[in-house]
Specification:
Length: 488
C-alpha cells in the first residue's frame, strides 16, 4: 500500500511550522513557517508534566555563539574631570583603525562610526544602553559622567577597560551632596570598580585622587604620566606592570623592562608637536586603553597619526584658526583645572594682545567663578564676559558679577565688558580684533560654536585651521616686525 502523509503543525514554541513530513526540507513539500515567536515559552521543556527536562535554553544560546565566545563586545568606559570627550573620541578612532564597528556615546552625542545618530549630551547610562543595544556595534566606547552615575549608575555590569583621566580640583562641586574633590573621586571610582578581572584600569599617575582608585580595581592597572620618573609610575613599572609615558618627545609603552616606542609626538597632530600638555595626556590615556585591548602598536600608531585637532575630529577641544593676523583658539575649558592647563599651554603663544570670551554655568560655586575671573585677569588684557542659556536658576548678570570680583585683582586685564549671548560676543571680538591678537573663544555649546566656525569663520578670506607651530611662527614674525626679540 502507498504511504500516506498527513499535513500537521509542529512547534518548538519559538517557530511553529506546517509540514507533510518533519524530516524533509520545507521547500520540497510546500511547508511553511506559521509565525516567529519573539518570546517562546520554555517552561514545558524545563519542567514538563512528565518525562525528562530538556535544557533548551542552553541549546538556544549554543546556536548563537561559537565555542569559547561570551557574547560580549569590548567595552571601554571613560570618566574624569577633564579630557573625557577627547579621550573617548580618540579611543574610538583607534578601535576603528583595527577595523571594528564602534559605538560611541559622549558629551557631543551618540555615534556609530562616523555617523551621529543622536545629539546633545549623551554621557549618561541611557545613551550607553542605546549603544549596547545596537547589534551592529562591535566595540563600545562610553563617556561616563558623574551626573549619570549619581542618577542611575552604569548601563553595564562590568567593562573591559576603565579610563580615569584626572580629578584635579574637581567640577560640579556643591551639587547632589558632592562637596569636595575627594567625594567626586568616590563617585567616579564607580567606573573603575566595574572593571572585569580580566580587564584593565587606566589611571593618571600624577593625580593622587586618580592614582588611589587603582587600589580598588579588580583587573590590572596601567598608569600613564608625561614624566616617566614619577614615583607612582616608576614603582608600578618596577613590579613588572604596564605604564605609558613620554621620553625624548616619544610616546612609550613599557611592561617591566620591555619597552616599545609608539610614536613621536611630532607625528601626533592632536598634541601640536607635543606642545599642548593636556592633549599629550589624552593621547597617553587613549594609547593605554587601546593597548589594554591588545590593539597592535602599529595600529595605534596609525590611529594617532590620523586623528586631527580640528573641528571635525575634536570639536571645541583646542581648535586653532588663523584669520589675517588674529589667532583664534576654540576650547571647552569650563572649570579651574581645565582653565589652568589651557592657560599654561597658551603661554607659549607670545601674541602682543590677548582677548578671551568666557562664562560659566550657573550651577557652579561662587568661589569657583571668582577664582576663574582672577586667572583670566592675570593672563588676558581684554575679557568679554557673556551669559547665555546656562544660567540655571541665577538672575541675569550674577555670573558676570562674580567673574568681575576675580578680575578686579587681575594683574594684566585692562578692559572688561559684558555681552548677552556667546555668538554675539564672538562677533564683537572679531570686529575689534587687533593685529597680533590671540583670541580664546570658550565653546559654550559645542554644536552652536562649531556651526558658527563653519558658517561664519572658515568661509572668510584667509581663514584656515592651523597648528600651534604655525601660530607661534606668526606671532614671532609680528613681534620681529615691531623690532622686538622673541624667544622660541
Amino acid at each position: 500500500l502507498p504511504t500516506v502523509s498527513i499535513p500537521c503543525s509542529l512547534s518548538a514554541d519559538g517557530m511553529p511550522v506546517a509540514v507533510q513530513l518533519i524530516g524533509r526540507p520545507l521547500d520540497e513539500q510546500g511547508g511553511v513557517i506559521v509565525e516567529v515567536n519573539a518570546g517562546p515559552g520554555l517552561r514545558m521543556h524545563l519542567e514538563p508534566s512528565s518525562g525528562e527536562p530538556r535544557a533548551v535554553g542552553e541549546a538556544i544560546v549554543d546556536t548563537l555563539f561559537a565555542e569559547g565566545q561570551t557574547g560580549r563586545i569590548p567595552l571601554i568606559g571613560v570618566t574624569g574631570t577633564n579630557g573625557k570627550t577627547t579621550t573617548t573620541r580618540l579611543v574610538a578612532h583607534l578601535l576603528r583603525a583595527q577595523g571594528l564597528t564602534v559605538g560611541m556615546a559622549c558629551t557631543d552625542g551618540i555615534y556609530l562610526n562616523d555617523r551621529r545618530i543622536a545629539t546633545g549630551d549623551c554621557s549618561g547610562p541611557q545613551s550607553a544602553t542605546m549603544v549596547l543595544a545596537n547589534p551592529a556595534v562591535e566595540a563600545a566606547v562610553l563617556e561616563t559622567a558623574r551626573g549619570g552615575i549619581l542618577r542611575a549608575g552604569l548601563a553595564f555590569d562590568r567593562c573591559d577597560v576603565a579610563v580615569i583621566t584626572n580629578i584635579g580640583q574637581g567640577d560640579h562641586l556643591g551639587l547632589a551632596g558632592i562637596e569636595t574633590p575627594e567625594q567626586m573621586a568616590w563617585v567616579k571610582r564607580t567606573l573603575s570598580d566595574s572593571v572585569a578581572r580580566s580587564g584593565f584600569g587606566v589611571f593618571k599617575a600624577d593625580d593622587p585622587l586618580t592614582a588611589a582608585m587603582s587600589q580598588h580595581c579588580s583587573g590590572r592597572t596601567i598608569f600613564f604620566c608625561r614624566d616617566e620618573r614619577h614615583a607612582v609610575l616608576a614603582e608600578h613599572r618596577a613590579k613588572g606592570e604596564r605604564v605609558v609615558f613620554v621620553r625624548d618627545g616619544k610616546v612609550v609603552c613599557a611592561e617591566g623592562q620591555t619597552e616599545q616606542i609608539v610614536a613621536p609626538l611630532a607625528e601626533v597632530p592632536l598634541t601640536h608637536h607635543g606642545r599642548i600638555g593636556f592633549q599629550v595626556e589624552n593621547v597617553l590615556a587613549s594609547t593605554a586603553a587601546a593597548w589594554a585591548l591588545a590593539v597592535p602598536l602599529e595600529t595605534i600608531r596609525a590611529g594617532l597619526r590620523t586623528f586631527l585637532p580640528d573641528i571635525a575630529f575634536s570639536p571645541g577641544r583646542f581648535n586653532l584658526l588663523q584669520i589675517g593676523e588674529t589667532t583664534i583658539v576654540v576650547d571647552y575649558a569650563h572649570n579651574i583645572s581645565a582653565l589652568s592647563a589651557l592657560l599654561q599651554d597658551l603661554s607659549q603663544m607670545r601674541h602682543e594682545h590677548r582677548t578671551v570670551i568666557y562664562s560659566a554655568a550657573g550651577d557652579r560655586r561662587d568661589d569657583d567663578m571668582v577664582q576663574q575671573g582672577r586667572m583670566l585677569g592675570d593672563f588676558f588684557d581684554r575679557v568679554i564676559l557673556y551669559e547665555d542659556q546656562y544660567l540655571r536658576g541665577r538672575p541675569l548678570g550674577q555670573i558676570s558679577s562674580l567673574f568681575r570680583q576675580g578680575l578686579e585683582s587681575g594683574n594684566r586685564v585692562e578692559d572688561v565688558r559684558e555681552i548677552r549671548g556667546a555668538l554675539e560676543a564672538i562677533d564683537v571680538a572679531l570686529e575689534e580684533a587687533r593685529p597680533g591678537e590671540l583670541l580664546l573663544v570658550q565653546a559654550d555649546k559645542i554644536d552652536d560654536t562649531v556651526e558658527f566656525v563653519r558658517r561664519r569663520l572658515l568661509p572668510k578670506a584667509g581663514c584656515r585651521e592651523i597648528d600651534l607651530k604655525t601660530a607661534q611662527k606668526a606671532a614671532r614674525q609680528l613681534v620681529a616686525a615691531g623690532g622686538d626679540a622673541l624667544d622660541d
